[in-house]
Write a structure and sequence with these properties.
mainly alpha, 76% helix, two-stranded antiparallel sheet, 3 domains
């Protein structure tokens, strides 16, 4: 905990030190999981999904609701593991997955009948529980699906495809921050996120468009033998950046409604897991869908 009596400069340095130490540890772990894929990626996604779901349900409880948090956290963590099982060749096809999802919803409603009753607002409880699973475990699992995209043959190709999206998420956030701090005057949506500016949003789109073209040309093509047409590469960067910013605003909206600043304080100097991956949650499925449509073999 930062000493509130310390001078602002010391508090700032302490926060910067926390962020730096966390990055030194976290970045190699994430990069290693992306490169190894398989159980390593599934495990880190399961942990992140569980923590994100826990934070989501905490935010929901601040509003006076009572989601079935334990069940939701467990199911959210199980989603990446179930997708991993599917890619291992186990019988977890679309029909089975849909059936299991339906059974889980029935089980949640059944539990609400006996555990919550009418006074426990069961419809609200189950709805929030299911939404929390979709918002965290399901959306985050698109990272695994991108890593093992059917067009990506080999470890390097799968890594490059997932890293393309992850790098664009980071570039969009960085571009929005830098441009917003240097040129931002007009607020984007001050009632939702007071710190975001129109200039920052536009800057993020422009920087992401250029970065997407460069990453496709100089990373995806040589590493994965896959590519996008130049116009599609630019549009891909714009679409991912738009999704990142919408995901950030969506989480800000939830926190604003609940009256909390951070989703939690689990990450030193950063807040919560949702605070770090909110944009990524929206960007991953958008990236997967667009790559399905636009991805082509690289010209030789």
């Amino acid at each position: 905990m930062t000493d509130a009596s310390a001078p602002p400069r010391e508090r700032g340095l302490s926060n910067l030190a926390q962020r730096t130490l966390f990055a030194i540890v976290a970045i190699p772990v994430v990069l290693g999981a992306v490169w190894l894929g398989d159980w390593a990626l599934a495990s880190i996604l399961a942990i992140a999904s569980a923590l994100a779901a826990w934070e989501f349900y905490r935010i929901a409880e601040k509003l006076g609701t009572r989601p079935m948090a334990r069940a939701g956290i467990a199911i959210a963590a199980a989603v990446p593991l179930a997708i991993h099982a599917r890619y291992l060749g186990l019988p977890v096809d679309a029909v089975v997955s849909t059936s299991v999802g339906a059974v889980l919803v029935i089980a949640l409603f059944s539990g609400a009948i006996f555990v919550r009753g009418v006074s426990g607002r069961p419809l609200e409880s189950v709805s929030l529980t299911v939404f929390g699973i979709l918002y965290t475990g399901v959306l985050l699992s698109f990272a695994y699906v991108l890593r093992y995209h059917p067009y990506a043959i080999g470890q390097a190709a799968g890594t490059a495809l997932l890293m393309l999206t992850l790098l664009l998420v980071w570039i969009s956030d960085t571009g929005a921050y830098v441009v917003g701090r240097t040129m931002g005057r007009r607020k984007l949506i001050p009632s939702v996120s007071p710190g975001k500016t129109v200039a920052g949003a536009v800057g993020a789109l422009v920087v992401s468009a250029g970065a997407s073209w460069a990453l496709v040309r100089f990373v995806l093509v040589p590493q994965a033998q896959l590519g996008l047409r130049p116009v599609h590469a630019i549009l891909f960067g714009i679409a991912v950046s738009t999704a990142v910013q919408l995901g950030d605003l969506a989480e800000s909206l939830m926190k604003r409604e609940a009256g909390v600043k951070d989703s939690s304080h689990i990450i030193p100097g950063h807040g919560g897991v949702l605070d770090r991956i909110d944009g990524m949650l929206f960007a991953l499925p958008v990236a997967y869908w667009l790559l399905n449509v636009w991805l082509i073999p690289a010209p030789r």
